[in-house]
């Protein structure tokens, strides 16, 4: 009887270990897939941010976008380092979410007149991008920690903090300057129409 019980316990323990191991493998695959996704997204942003800065009129917004471009270029390099640390070839996988966010930003820039209203639209589009990146990097940090990849988690956490700071900078620009200018421009436009 004792042998039977011991065998059952060993089998149960072995099954738990196997299940935990396969779950970890699945999480690792999800982690790597998510890294490929954000790698594509960051590379796409290195092309989109200059276009946004070119369409902006606010000096503060232009400088913020240009600064974030420099950060994004470094983030691409950091992601390549992460791939190296986990012994996976750095490859990008098309990120449907980022593609949609960039497409929306292009649409906003096309459908608004040059000036504070377009600047407000660019900020809104850029903040959507930042929120996506914050969610992604937060998840990647958690995955890396769970997988015991502490060095990788630290690298990704650096990028997460940069994304949070970029979002705060955009919020400050919107609240302190651009949204008020956009409101003033809209009021001036309405007054001109009323005079006609």
From TrEMBL:
CDD domains: YciF. Pfam families: DUF892 (PF05974). Residues 1-13 have a biased composition (Basic and acidic residues). Residues 183-196 have a biased composition (Acidic residues). It comes from the Bacteria. Residues 1-21, 166-196 are annotated as: Disordered. This is Ferritin-like domain-containing protein. The lineage of its organism: Bacteria, Pseudomonadati, Bacteroidota, Flavobacteriia, Flavobacteriales.
């Amino acid at each position: 009887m004792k042998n039977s019980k011991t065998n059952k316990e060993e089998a149960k323990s072995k099954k738990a270990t196997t299940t935990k191991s396969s779950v970890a493998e699945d999480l690792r695959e999800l982690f790597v897939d998510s890294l490929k996704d954000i790698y594509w997204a960051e590379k796409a942003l290195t092309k989109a941010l200059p276009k946004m800065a070119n369409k902006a009129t606010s000096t503060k917004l232009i400088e913020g976008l240009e600064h974030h471009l420099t950060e994004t270029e470094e983030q691409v390099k950091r992601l390549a380092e992460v791939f190296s640390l986990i012994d996976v070839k750095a490859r990008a996988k098309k990120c449907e979410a980022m593609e949609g966010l960039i497409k929306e930003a292009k649409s906003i820039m096309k459908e608004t007149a040059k000036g504070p209203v377009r600047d407000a639209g660019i900020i809104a589009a850029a903040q959507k991008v930042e929120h996506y990146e914050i969610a992604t990097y937060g998840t990647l940090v958690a995955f890396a920690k769970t997988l015991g990849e502490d060095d990788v988690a630290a690298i990704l956490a650096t990028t997460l903090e940069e994304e949070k700071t970029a979002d705060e900078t955009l919020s400050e620009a919107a609240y302190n300057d651009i949204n008020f200018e956009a409101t003033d421009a809209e009021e001036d436009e309405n007054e001109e129409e009323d005079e006609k």
